Amino acid sequence: MSSGSVILKRDVEAAIVPVGTKITLKAGEEALITQSLGGTYTVVVNGNMFRIESRDADALGMEAEVKPAAPAGTSLGGRVTAEQLDKEIWGQLRTCYDPEIPVNIVDLGLVYDCKLAPIAGAEDRYRVDVKMTLTAPGCGMGPVLQQDVQNKLMSIEAVDDVNVELVWEPQWNQGMLSEAAKLQLGLM
């Protein structure tokens, strides 16, 4: 996680945190990077917080993170077992971060369910269904986080379809944080 002040190199699309509305930040504006995790950036410009996607890292004078070409742990012959793929999926979910909290969505307890299913008639191709929530039902960042999860899971070679559903039951609470997240946030 890096932080620091930069001057925007070009106009860049950003989502206002926490409402999620997309706007364009202008080249030449000063941005304070407050969080750089999972390939996304949280910045403060003119006192307002924004999330900038990895693909736009160059606007901050940085390079976008390079994604692995294939899932880790492939077996002989290049085939991936369902167990290996499940591990890779959870690894990718752990690269998705709330823009206001420096903890991944898995350790925050936001992922309620993640199911992997083979796609009928397509050898070694899978669908992933994720049920997740947000720390607050009114948070406008829901669609942004949904898209982040979908993009990261679709980057896995054996995954052809991803459905990310936001659910509100049970309602999220701090008791859902992992022990590591509680420690990181100073709640223990």
Identify the notable features of this structure and list them briefly.
6-stranded antiparallel β-sheet, SH3 type barrels, 3-stranded mixed β-sheet, globular, 3 helices, 188 residues, 2 domains, GMP Synthetase, Chain A, domain 3, 29% strand, alpha+beta
> Could you tell me the mean pLDDT?
90
For this structure, what is the CATH class of the largest domain?
Answer: Alpha Beta
In one word, what is the shape?
A: globular
By secondary-structure content and strand pairing, the structural class works out as alpha+beta
Q: Please tally the β strands and state the result.
A: 9
Name given to the CATH homologous superfamily of the largest domain = Fe-S cluster assembly (FSCA)
Within the CATH hierarchy, at the fold level, what is the topology of the largest domain?
GMP Synthetase, Chain A, domain 3
Low-confidence parts, pLDDT < 50 over ≥5 residues? 68-77
**Major sheet size, sense and barrel closure:** 6 strands, antiparallel
Cα-to-Cα separation, first versus last residue: 22 Å
| Count of alpha/pi helices | 3
Give the topology string: H per helix, E per strand: EEEEEEHEEHEH
Q: Strand share of the residues?
A: 25-35%
Please describe what this structure looks like.
The chain is α+β, with helices and mostly antiparallel strands and 188 residues long. The protein folds into two domains: 4-60, SH3 Domains (SH3 type barrels, Roll); 76-184, Fe-S cluster assembly (FSCA) (GMP Synthetase, Chain A, domain 3, 2-Layer Sandwich), CATH 3.30.300.130. 16% of the residues lie in helices and 29% in strands. The protein contains three helices and nine strands; from the N terminus they run ββββββαββαβα. The protein has helices spanning 82-93, 142-154, 179-184, and strands at residues 4-7, 12-16, 22-25, 30-37, 40-45, 48-52, 111-118, 126-132, 159-166. The longest helix has 13 residues, at 142-154. Mean pLDDT is 90; it is low at 68-77.
